[in-house]
Amino acid sequence: MTDLTNQVAIVTGASRGIGRAIALLLALQGAKVVAVARTAEELEELNAKTQGLAIPADVADEDDAQHIVTETLSRFGRLDILVCNAGVGSFNLLEHFDAAEWDRIFDVNVKGTFLLCKAVVPHFKAQGRGHIVGITSDVSKRTFEHGTAYGASKFAQDALLASLRKEVRPHGVKVSTIYPGLVDTYFNDSRPGSLDAEKTHLKPSDVAQAVRYVLEAPAHVVIDELMLHPITQEW
């Protein structure tokens, strides 16, 4: 199994929910975590626990994306893992969406993934190793009413990661994609624990364990896709 001790991992959307659970678990496994989110106060509270690096940033801003990578390399001198977790969602009938809300969803879910991958891929290719993990959604594989914007963004993010996987695999770089179902978290203005979600929702820690699983797989093992089933909590 791959040892995560002293590996440096960027985790986006790390201030709460799934991203926070991933950051805490990776730190527990000995990784040096670079936590990225827009909320500085929540990041600092997390960083007090992970003892890594907190970078307030907007993943949809190209300068911010490059700054994240530059600061990481300056602080730790290496970079091994990128977890693209930052995501937003909004659900409504198509005719009730305005262009600004559509753009916001695509900026975070798709453009943010693109910009962070673009920033790390040259470094990963040059060193002949690295692992990108994308947290998409089970709606990357299905459609539902009121899900035009969110679903389209997740289909796009999934295609981006699948294409990138083919580009970087010859250079020793891995790309893994995780597809959670419903998660009891802050997504779409929800409050964790506010629903009777024990049997119908995953916990953020379930997704974090899936990330750990793909990262710790032996170097020769490639796990392209990992679907998480919320009812059985099996993967």
From TrEMBL:
Pfam families found in the cross-reference section: adh_short
Gene Ontology MF: a single term: oxidoreductase activity
UniProtKB keywords: Oxidoreductase
SUPFAM superfamilies attached to this UniProt entry: NAD(P)-binding Rossmann-fold domains
InterPro entries linked to this entry: NAD(P)-bd_dom_sf, SDR_fam
PANTHER family from the UniProt entry: DEHYDROGENASE/REDUCTASE SDR FAMILY MEMBER 11, DEHYDROGENASE_REDUCTASE SDR FAMILY MEMBER 11
Family: Belongs to the short-chain dehydrogenases/reductases (SDR) family.
Protein name: Short-chain dehydrogenase/reductase SDR
